[in-house]
Specification:
Elements (H helix, E strand, L loop, with lengths): L1 E6 L4 E8 L4 E8 L5 H5 L7 E5 L3 E2 L18 E3 L2 E2 L12 H7 L3 E4 L3 H11 L2 E7 L6 H5 L5 H5 L5 E4 L5 E5 L5 H9 L3 E5 L5 H5 L5 E4 L10 H10 L6 E4 L1 H9 L4 E17 L5 E12 L8 E7 L5 E6 L4 E4 L14 H18 L4
Parallel strand pairs: 3-4, 4-6, 5-7, 6-8, 11-12, 11-13, 13-14, 14-19
Antiparallel strand pairs: 1-2, 1-9, 2-8, 3-9, 10-12, 15-16, 15-17, 17-18, 18-19
Helix pairs in contact: 8-9
Length: 361
């Protein structure tokens, strides 16, 4: 079926609809990854977004039930140059097109994704709509507020996973990726996921030995309750790690500020420098907002920096066992250069437990 992508500035791209083939709107963003479309599609951080894949051929290894970050696709739409309908991979169980149709996700192919990406880079992220045939979207509908993104992906109840006898880790879930949970469980931890609106008191009742602030979608300033929770948690000396949205919330809870990037960082090829060692890692990223360095509170110090645009990629608390990174160390999809950050968190937790067990003299 013929269709078109119409941006809110009036720019139009024609193509062919696939998947659910229904009219849909969202914020149009691009991802530069060459592979990993299945992890991308199921990443809760993409809620309310229509994702453009810059790699021209998509769907060539089909889809499977293993490489997913949540139970279903979370993107509003998928925009590609060419969709492969003859996948070839030993783990593939079907075509990407069928997977999207089954879950009600609309896609469009035949788009000049290079031109579209350049347009977003020059004009910035903006709303867009996918429509069929000669239809035209209502401008008021196109620009109307989108649903609360975190509310649609956070857990609705406390879930405890992993080793019941393991070190207790409480996760404030803003839309956590499955691979993050797996990394914690693989280290023998007992992981409890809490809804985004959970208070510090409710989390501390679990008597966790560490706290993780997860990734998630949207503007961190739209989460005042979460910012208060993080602020209350910081009054304790409990080890804390933040990832992506969790990184931004930590900064805000400490009195810092964030700003929206022109077109965000999305892809598995972003170089990040560890300022203390000089080591450079290639990272997987997916975010629209960044920490405003000139407003960084005195209690925080910058630990990592993006070598493409100089943005802050990591911070550490000067007095407490607390740190966060803007990128995704779980590497799903993307390079595994930064997986050791989970070891750093585990070491912080173990050192904290040892201090508690040390007898008084």
């Amino acid at each position: 079926m013929k269709g078109k992508l119409i941006l809110e500035d009036g720019t139009l791209f024609e193509g062919k609809l696939f998947g659910a083939m229904k009219q849909v709107r969202g914020e149009v963003v691009f991802n530069t990854g060459m592979t990993g479309y299945q992890e991308l599609l199921t990443d809760p951080s993409y809620v309310n977004q229509m994702v453009v894949l810059t790699y021209p051929l998509v769907g060539n290894y089909g889809f499977n039930w293993e490489d997913v970050e949540s139970a279903s696709p979370k993107v509003n739409a998928l925009i590609v140059k060419e969709l492969c309908r003859t996948p070839s991979h030993f783990r593939s169980v079907g075509q990407l097109e069928h997977y999207l149709k089954e879950h009600g996700i609309t896609g469009i192919e035949g788009i000049d994704t290079r031109a579209l990406t350049i347009h977003i880079r020059e004009k910035g992220m903006m709303r867009g709509a996918l429509v069929a045939g000669d239809e035209m979207p209502d401008q008021q509908w196109l620009t109307a507020p989108l649903p609360d993104p975190v509310a649609s992906v956070t857990t609705t109840q406390v879930k405890t996973l992993g080793n019941p006898e393991g070190t207790r880790i409480a996760v404030l879930d803003f839309g956590i990726k499955g691979a993050i949970v797996k990394h914690l469980i693989n280290r023998g931890m007992c992981v409890s996921l809490y809804p985004a609106q959970t208070t510090a008191k409710e989390m501390l009742a679990f008597q966790p030995s560490g706290i993780l602030l997860s990734n998630g979608p949207g503007n961190p300033k739209d989460l005042p309750a979460a910012i208060k929770t993080v602020n209350d948690l910081l009054k304790m000396d409990i080890p804390l790690m933040g990832i992506c949205l969790g990184h931004q919330l930590l900064n805000l809870a400490c009195g810092g500020d964030v700003y929206k990037l022109p077109f965000g960082h999305r892809g598995g090829n972003h170089p990040v420098k560890h300022l203390e060692t000089g080591a450079v890692t290639i990272t997987s990223q997916n975010h629209s907002y960044a920490v405003k360095e000139e407003c960084l509170p005195d209690c925080l110090t910058v630990t990592h920096r993006n070598l493409n645009d100089g943005t802050v990629e990591g911070i550490r608390h000067r007095q407490k066992p607390v740190f966060s990174v803007q990128y995704h160390p779980e590497a799903s999809p993307g390079p595994a250069d930064s997986v050791a950050l989970f070891d750093t968190f585990q070491q912080m937790v173990e050192e904290s437990l040892q201090k508690e067990e040390k007898p008084c003299h």
